[in-house]
Amino acid sequence: MALDDKNLANLDLDGLRGEIDEIDQALQSLIIRRTNVVQAVGAYKDRVIAAGGKVKVPYRPAREARIMRTLVDRHDGAFPKTALIQIWREMIAAGTRLEASYTIALCRNAEGLDCWELARLNFGCLNDIIEYDTPREAFGALEEGRAAVGVFPKPELGEPMPWWTLLTEQSAVKVVSKLPFGGRPVGRGEQTEGFVLAAIDLEDSGDDRTLFVVSLSKEISMDTARKKIAGGIAGSAILGFSDDTAEDRRFVLVDVPGFFCNRADAFQATLAEQGLDPESLRVVGAYAVPISEDALS
Q1: What is the pLDDT of residue 125?
Q2: Any long-range contacts for 44-49 (C-beta under 8 Å, 24+ apart)?
Q3: What sign results for the dihedral spanned by CA atoms 274, 276, 277, 280?
Q4: Which of 13, 24, 49, 80 has the least CB density, counted as fewest CB within 10 Å?
Q5: Once rounded to an integer, what is the mean pLDDT over residues 75-81?
Q6: Residue 246's pLDDT band (cuts 50, 70, 90)
Q7: Which tens digit of pLDDT belongs to each residue from 123-168?
Q8: pLDDT of residue 10
């Protein structure tokens, strides 16, 4: 039986180690129990498929975000919150792999940088990571089903041929998560940020941001666009832009606070009120707002 802190102080080293061993056994029993439930979920999905139905892919970033936030909110004591999150990351990744193994496509940017450490932290130690030299190759792996998710570096303003221009209306692939979500890697990759792409439904986690690609006339300067977008919805930001060489227009990647996936017309109306009058506008993703450093400390 677990002892309280007062009684722990009365134990010698062997007694304390015995207490740790007892707790470890209880933890492992719960992991085994949790795994049995995960396998039951997989069996249920198999029955649905056999009956001609469809099920969602195992990766649910909005649900994972809610789980991680709950862990942090209810946590107490000296055990680091980032380490707690990583324990759950590994359990979720291992459980997801029991339902269906999947591969992560890793994309390098123009400078050859990638988000390998972020991908490994987020998707666990068991899933395969395949690196691609170009965004188009990594994106193709997602569209063709050779990879279930892709991790792409955070866009840079003015970079040539940015990966987000591949997120067309014809593609089912969307941005579904931002990394890091709950703690950064230590050392190599500590300053990297990235986005997760997948062909799954977008879900509201309760605290989200939405990504739009907006088509504007090239006559509108980026400075003007930035001010008007920020003026329309506080907290909005431009993450990237790309000029259409064939026509007199510019595509702009806009990051907006809130879950706007079913309300794109509201954002378009807001831009029109600011005098931008976009030629077109489409949702290319949404993601749960990462846990802040303050909340993890």
Answers
A1: 92
A2: 45/99
A3: negative
A4: 13
A5: 95
A6: low
A7: 999 999 999 989 999 999 999 999 999 999 999 888 888 999 999 9
A8: 86
Query: Tokens standing for 190?
Result: 């500590």
Cis before residue 180, ω within 30 degrees of 0?
yes
Nearest to 201 by CA among 56, 92, 45: 56
Which of 1-10, 59-68, 153-162: highest mean pLDDT? 59-68
Confidence of residue 45 (pLDDT cuts 50, 70, 90): confident
Kindly report the length of the chain.
297
Which tokens go with 189?
């990759």
Q: What angle do CA 28, 33, 38 make, to 5 degrees?
A: 120
CB 253 within 8 A of CB 238: yes
Cβ neighbors of 264 (< 8 A, separation 6 or more) are: 212, 281, 282, 283
User: In which residue are the tokens 């940015």 written?
Assistant: 162
- Name the E strands within the chain: 103-107, 128-132, 149-153, 174-179, 194-198, 208-217, 237-244, 249-257, 280-288
SS3 187: coil
Give the orientation angle of helix 116-123 with respect to helix 81-99, to 10 degrees: 70
245: which 2 tokens?
């060489």
CA dihedral sign, ordered 46, 51, 52, 53: negative
Backbone phi, psi, residue 244, to 5°:
-85, 110
Count Cβ atoms below 10 Å from residue 222 Cβ, excluding itself: 15
Return the DSSP state at 245.
T
Helix (H, G, I), strand (E, B) or coil at 254: strand
CB 38 within 8 A of CB 99: yes
